[in-house]
Design goal:
The chain is α/β, with parallel strands linked by helices. It has eleven helices and 26 strands.
Length: 408
Amino acid sequence: MPQQTFVIVGASLAGAKAAETLRNEGFDGRIVLVGEEIERPYERPPLSKGFLLGKDERESAHVHPAEWYEANQVELRVGTSATSIDRVEHQVVLSTGERLPYDRLLLATGASPRRLEVPGGKLQGIHYLRTMADSAVLREALSPGGRRVVVAGAGWIGLETAAAAREYGNDVTIIEPEPGPLHRHLGPELGEVFAGLHRRHGVDLRFDQSVAGFWGAGQVSAVVTSGGAEIPADVVIAGIGARPNTGLAEDAGLDVSDGVLTDASLRTSDPDIYAAGDVAAFYHPVLGRRVRVEHWANALDGGPVAARGMLGQEAVHSAVPYFFTDQYELGMEMSGLASPGDYDEIVYRGETDALEFIAFWLKAGRVVAAMNVNVWDVTDDLRALIAGGATPDRARLADPKVPLADLA
């Protein structure tokens, strides 16, 4: 039997973990990992956390040591993009002009930051954060301190970069069109916890407003809001969300809708093509609906699931979504998804004012999401509660004396 070739487009965490899993599962064929960036695969959380703050070295973010790829016979093509997919001939066309044959193809092309399409949006000093290079440039802009920083968007990227900017000693203003931070991620109740945290650290929060434009002569000097305010700015950070990089899949005729559509095994509408990470909109059997998750754990878990599917194994991406953040003195882990409309009530265990608590989002009595703030070593129990469809008694749920494991 001729040697098989598996191609992975996207030298990302999902792509690198897929390659690792293929070798761990005994695949002895050719593996080609193609990535646009000149960096070998790395994890993105440090870009808005430790690396941005100068606490983590660049090397610590990489998924594998440099020598791992050659040692495991993974052909790593950095600085190379895929320009098209020929599904009839089973080939990926690269920016070099090479037509790379594949037996199985994994798309791990990630997402790109949404851009502020407003007057003055091309001025210098407006930053988007997606790559290690972006983070290095932003760190250089923030680290001197004493700068006037405006953050557009109070989502996770916006809040984490705002916290980093304050730790460097900059003045920070956040502009957010929703009524509070993280509104679409957590709802208003827990969003207010993060609003209070940033206010206590001197951040000026301006909700129900958006960025209408920028002033400056080459370099940004002010942000104009939808309410007509002009906010002086030396540095602007835009954290207004991301779009999945679906162009390659769409041009190839795959089913696409806010991501590359896949089943629970991360198989696309073409049985020889899979998708994982930020770009995949997959059916989640625990949540009972299709989701697209842009968090680190989704790439970490999804890459191996796709790899096993490519090998013909039974594999389902059923891990409960997980996310973590560190902002000032707050450390948090989130399990599940808790957008407004996805829950009926929230039950608290501990004190929110003391920033040491667990919050449980319930829908029809079932735990659908949970957040532990400065409470550690509980994630496995919380994910088990969600995965098991637990409907615990609310008094027991709120009682710190009741072990979480007893509620599943």
